[in-house]
Amino acid sequence: MKITHIGGPTALIEVGGWHLLTDPTFDAPGRRYAFGWGTSSTKVSGPAVSLASLGRIDAVLLTHDHHGDNLDDLGRAMLPDVSRVITTSSGAGRLGGNATGLAPWATTRLSGEDPGSSTEIQA
């Protein structure tokens, strides 16, 4: 297994031939993200590597979609290009499309074209 920290909550996990990306955030520094109730954060540094340089992403593991510092504009734009997005049940309802929602402690299985290549994800 290889884990590459890209920045903030974003990491590339390479395991068993799979390329899994966590919480995709690829916007440039300087962006302000509002969270409501007068709270916000400002991105002070960009990602260590660009989204384009990552190559194939098999699935995105998304902790939550409703804060821009865990799913920014460029991260959200890349979701339709990924086979599967695994997130919370409410997040999957908001995202639709290729998003699968997991309840706490639920599991799902990722399987590829090779029947021997499967990985189980538990959230």
Descriptive terms for the model:
MBL fold metallo-hydrolase; 123 residues; single chain; 39% strand; UPF0173_UPF0282_UlaG_hydrolase; 2 helices; two-stranded antiparallel sheet; six-stranded mixed beta sheet
Structural commentary:
By secondary structure, the protein is mainly beta. It has a domain at 1-25 and 54-105. Helices cover 11% and strands 39% of the residues. It has helices at residues 73-78, 89-95; strands spanning 2-7, 10-15, 18-22, 32-36, 39-42, 59-61, 84-88, 99-102, 107-111, 118-122. The protein has a six-stranded mixed β-sheet. It has a two-stranded antiparallel ribbon with strand order 4-5. The two termini are 19 Å apart. The model has no long low-confidence stretch (mean pLDDT 86). It comes from Asanoa iriomotensis. Residues 89-123 are annotated as: Disordered. Keywords: Hydrolase. InterPro entries: RibonucZ/Hydroxyglut_hydro, UPF0173_UPF0282_UlaG_hydrolase.
